[in-house]
Amino acid sequence: xxxxxxxxxxxxxxxxxxxxxxxQICVNTQERGAEHRVLALTKDASKRAVRRxxxxxxxxxxxxxxxxxxxxxxxxxxxRRLASWADVIHYHFPWPFGDLLHLVAAPGKPSLVTYHxxxxxxxxxxxxxxxxxxxxLGAVDRIxxxxxxxxxxxxxxxxxxxKVDIVPIGLREDTYPAxxxxxxxxxxxxxxxxFFLFIGVLRYYKGLHILLEAAxxxxxxxxxxxxxxxxxxxxxxxxxxxxxxxxxxxQVPDAExxxxxxxxxxxxxxxxxxxxxxxxxxxxxxMFAKPLISTEVGSGTSHVNIDGETGLVVTPGSAxxxxxAMDRLHHNPDLARLMGRNARRRFEALFxxxxxxxxxxxxxxxxxxxxxxxxxNEPEVVARFSQx
Length: 388
Description:
Layout: E1 2-6, H1 17-30, E2 35-42, E3 49-51, E4 56-61, E5 64-66, E6 69-71, H2 75-85, E7 88-93, H3 96-105, E8 111-115, H4 123-139, E9 142-145, H5 148-153, H6 155-159, E10 164-166, H7 181-191, E11 196-199, H8 208-215, E12 222-225, H9 231-241, E13 246-250, H10 254-263, E14 266-268, H11 280-287, E15 292-295, H12 301-304, E16 311-314, H13 319-331, H14 333-350, H15 353-368
Helix pairs in contact: 1-15, 3-4, 7-10, 8-9, 8-13, 11-14
């Protein structure tokens, strides 16, 4: 079974939660007989095909970008070629240019789209884009939402309820590197331990400006791992506030990220807009048995993090509540450990990569008219949210 993934960017050009989600889908369906290719855009076309463990990444040269929507003239020809290879085409939303690829190239193959997020920021462009979006979502065979929380709060997903499946994102532990004691010690020497950790691309909706306000005068340390469009402004804000307890680690390799996850007191995830639809970093924290601090934005973050059980959920945009949550876990290490253990149990029950892989395999096979493999035909595998 050959699956083509279509999204505007992928490893090695960029690193983020959506890219990691695609990687985990590929890894966790490979052993179930799926072969994957990824079509993405790149500004560096010196190497068009990159062979990775999970997939062959075919990159088209980006020729323009409008409101973060990359476009490529040559992508149409590359897409047609890759679509002829594929048994299933798997789009990742939102990417309006991907909608055009599907509607213009008309691949004639079974198709699904994983709906990662509503379009939140570009209100005028969203209004102009709406007819194309509805036509695209109406044309694909299935739509996958990543959490029941997002489904019930998304007007778009509700419109297409009859073709929506809910498949929460999952992670596979053995896809993360094992880190030696010496490597952990080196990271401890640089950053200490017991800090609150943010990992991710530094984007406008991540709420890191709120985190910096919350950290002012706090007794705890904060480590921000990642880079992105708001990094310069955030560093300037930290200097202006005189924050000596906040460290910007920049983009870190996987081994260093694992060490940071092992050393931190908990994960802090202050995203304050619905553009944050799930939060893969929250899953990573849960996998490492860390308590979680997130906000209630009506998205999948509150499917991962249950307030008072796996961590604390605060009002989006409130630096005061975020500070109180960090103070509570900082001053109560036993509570932090208890919530971390609860987070790990919830991860094992709902968010493993193996569970996600079985669900996607069942959807792929259903689209291709193939029987499900052993263990993939359980009723909940492709259960509609309305049936749960």
